[in-house]
Amino acid sequence: MTKLNYDLVVFGATSFVGQILTQYLAEYFATQKEQIRWAIAGRSQQKLQHVKDTLGPIGQAVPILVADANNQTELDALCAQTRVVVSTVGPYALYGEPLIQACVNNGTDYCDLTGETQWIKHMITKYEAQAQQSSSRIIHCCGFDSVPSDMGVYYLQQQAQQQFNAPATQVSMRVKTLKGGASGGTVASLINVIQEAAADPALRKDLLNPYILCPADHGNTQRQTYIKSAKFDPDFNAWIAPFVMAAVNERVVQRSNALSGNAYGNNFRYNEAILTGEGLKGRLKALAVVSGLGAFMLAAVSKPISQVMERYLLPKPGEGPTPEQQLAGRFELRFVGKTDAGQSLKVKVTGDRDPGYGSTGKMLGQAALSLAIDHAKDGEKSTVQGGFWTPATMFDDRFIQRLTKHAGLSFEQV
Ligand SMILES: NC(=O)c1ccc[n+]([C@@H]2O[C@H](COP(=O)([O-])OP(=O)(O)OC[C@H]3O[C@@H](n4cnc5c(N)ncnc54)[C@H](OP(=O)(O)O)[C@@H]3O)[C@@H](O)[C@H]2O)c1
């Protein structure tokens, strides 16, 4: 194997979440024994220098690499120097493809924060065969969507196997607590998906397909039931409402099942929703969430309204929750799983910091380190071949240990 200059390059170190990630890695390497050769990258030397200056003494040793997300030659040169790239340059549907192409050209491993299912599907269709040939492992969705959902189900299935010797073929995830804000990049990505879907009926149909990310021969014929309205959930004795990230997480979890040979069952069903509470108050809150989501979708579909929202109401690229808001944020997810024989179990996944940024930066950092260290190809520590994987099919218990020890997450049976 060729000797490369770097183990990990952070592409998009200047983005809102890229700065959190970069700071997290610098602090991690300053306090932990694990050390790797890493660099920061992006399109602007000046902006990257500014990020480097904020990293303290350890940052001074971190090299800067300049590459534009639209310049294939520069991206190829970047990927040829490193074993792993972690990217926060989004919306990925607008900027992400040339970097995927450079990674599969060079056999470079890659992880990111995209939740744009239509783009992920397009990348799998176009580049999976080449990724398998070049041994490049591509792992999308390594932030709040979809690490807690995907690894939460992975963890629940392990408990189910240990206790019942059978998978939980029906799993529901309910968001109990979610405290945090949105950044300009996330808002831009969300509005981009809604507008693309509004303009393209075929894409709308694709996005509704629960198995959109699964290989064609996934073998699960089960009809999935999604939470589209306010409902009472007897498993939690509370009202529930649609969860905005469900459309991504549910598809990723289904892909994990398909890629693991239907280890969760070929009749596996999964859905997500948020808990809004008991009684009339819970019901009214659920109805309010449904109306709020509907109003946001309508506003996003209309170009003039979405432009006004982006200009005056929503965070702009580079903006997001303050450091205080990030620290004050947290999340708690509850999962209930049922086997075909009717046995059931509950699991809780929690995280400190706000889910989309403070916590996402740490999850993405640990996913990148897991690729660079635990699953290093040249160290032969990994049996995972090239291709497009989900967090739960690329990583294993070592990732859960990393998340628990270093990223403020907890996984436990309740
Ligand atoms: N899955 C999750 O849980 C989660 C959570 C948070 C964010 N996200 C996603 O992560 C992405 C980043 O979000 P954000 O709010 O951090 O974004 P942001 O602050 O708007 O930053 C965008 C980044 O893209 C870079 N960029 C734009 N065009 C480029 C080009 N041609 N070449 C190189 N770099 C270019 C920008 O570089 P400059 O600084 O040079 O302009 C900047 O670093 C979004 O897609 C968002 O949806 C996902």
TrEMBL record:
GO biological process, one term: glycolipid biosynthetic process
Gene Ontology CC: one annotated term: plasma membrane
Domain Saccharopine dehydrogenase NADP binding residue range list: 9-136
Family matches, as InterPro entries: NAD(P)-bd_dom_sf, Saccharopine_DH-like_oxidrdct, Sacchrp_dh_NADP-bd
Family: Belongs to the saccharopine dehydrogenase family. Enoyl reductase subfamily.
Protein name: Saccharopine dehydrogenase NADP binding domain-containing protein
Lineage: Bacteria, Pseudomonadati, Pseudomonadota, Gammaproteobacteria, Moraxellales
